[in-house]
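Example noted here:
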Amino acid sequence: MNAVMPETQSVNTAQQAPERILQRLEWHVIRRLDGLLQGDYRTLFYGTGLDFTDLREYQPQDDIRHIDWNVTARMNSPYVRQYVEDREITGWFLLDLSPSMGFGPAGRAKQQVLIDFVATLARLLTRSGNRVGAILYNNRQIRTIPPRTGRNQVLRLIRELLREAEAPTGPTTDLTPLLQAALNTFKRRALVFLISDFISAPGWQRPLTLLNRRNELIAVRLFDPREVELPNAGLIVVQDAETGEQMWVDTANTEFRRRFYAAANQREAELKAQLKQAGAHHYAISTEEDLVSSLVRMATLRKRQRV
């Protein structure tokens, strides 16, 4: 009896973990968002509907995908189609669970931020009757969670994400298979969140561009400040989260820290340019940033983009 008690307690704890996480987010995040955004989540979620309503002249901020070329040719001036927004949205989460997502402070690694972010958005969507699904990628395999609605679906997402939390090291991440899986899976237009640190081999820009043509795509980059600017901690061992390779570096060396910072900023600039070229809306969230503040900032930026 005593021998099996620890096992039983462990199983019960594992079963209760998703519920505890969701309750924490409902109380500390969603409740605060309801007050700050006053329940208006259209700035975060606004699917492009399929019901055509009218035509009007093109304005500089309009989506060029809505240009009606036949009318434009007849009128010798660009016209765009207007749509009624879908009231029901199918939300998809494309989730990078590669080893580098485990980087960050204790209890606040990028992967933990990802879990909280996904659970919060999924709950906001499902409580309005929308369906959510996910495609999980951990460098070894791709798993799909079909879209469903309801609180139980959010708990399932959390449970599956917790199961993936201990991914082993392996080859450098390539986001292309994740994006290609999405292209093969989505049958109709959806609201898509691609959540990753974008530490990836090149080649993912083309499938991302194709995905953005058919869907409302939001790219969320998770990062830790120490990936950009090294602290002066003397001689330390650093490890490549993707391959497990280790090496000694002298962080007390001012020139080394300067070159590290410059390289990190160059990578970030290149990433922003690639996402912009693909047409994806891009938001960056730090492991040190409050989740409520992150989502309010996202909502504010998205509202400006719609004006």
